[in-house]
Amino acid sequence: MKRRNVVFITSMLLVVLLIAGGTFAWFTDNTPLKINKFKAGTLDIVLIDRFCPDMAQNVNPGDCYFKEVYVKNLGTKRAVVRIKKDMAFEGGLSLAPVMSSIGSDWFEKNGYFVYKKVLNPGQSTTGLFAWNKICFSGPLMDNTYQGKGFDIKVMAEGIQASNHAPWLNGWGVKVYYPIVRSDEVAEGLVSEATEAEMAAILETEAAPIGEDSAVEIADVIEEVVR
């Protein structure tokens, strides 16, 4: 009986050893490690405000002053930019005497002035103020304005142009893509892209911003939500 048990145990150990040894007998292979590296882009804008305060310390009705305000994209990402502008006379006097027009490349939306074009890395906007001038009307600037201070405050904001960020972040504008005409492709003015290439471009890139399109789309979305 004992001998039978010993034989049985020995047989089981042999089976275990054969199984254990067999695990090293299969054909195997492995591949080298592949690493995909991603690096986030940078959104970096700077507000340029060219103005000489020393020249504006003795303002007369009818005077005009040079003031150039624009934004430059220092980052690696395409950006949509806007400028917030606040103007005020000391004592809350009316702004009626202030004559300043906004440049044609900007439009007003939600209290900001949005640049109509997507800003590529290294590019700058045109000036916010038309002709880069701030003027004061002679007929509208009476004696109540004597000795009063006048302040202009400007600040800029930027957001990535891709993936509908300006719209989803509440800026109230959408980036749209120009329609490529077949005659432009035929004349070699633009390259014809495959469907996959066009889908990738539409997903990741941006083009000029349309004020009218943004307002139209906003109205439609508002009606659908209600």
Strand residue content:
15-25%
Q: From the helix content, strand content and strand pairing, which structural class follows?
A: alpha+beta
Radius of gyration from CA coordinates: 34 Å
Number of strands: 8
Looking at the chains present, what oligomeric state does this protein adopt? single chain
Give a verbal description of the structure.
By secondary structure, this protein is α+β, with helices and mostly antiparallel strands. The relative contact order is 0.15.
Task: Give the key terms.
8 strands; 4-stranded antiparallel beta sheet; 226 residues; 24% helix; alpha+beta; disordered C terminus
In short:
By secondary structure, this protein is of the alpha+beta class. It has helices at about 1-20, 165-170, 180-185, 195-205, 210-225; strands at about 45-50, 65-75, 80-90, 100, 105-110, 110-115, 135, 150-160.
Write the layout of secondary structure elements.
Elements (H helix, E strand, L loop, with lengths): L1 H21 L22 E7 L12 E10 L5 E11 L8 E2 L6 E4 L2 E4 L17 E4 L13 E11 L4 H4 L13 H5 L8 H10 L6 H15 L1
Antiparallel strand pairs: 1-2, 2-7, 3-6, 3-8, 4-7, 5-6
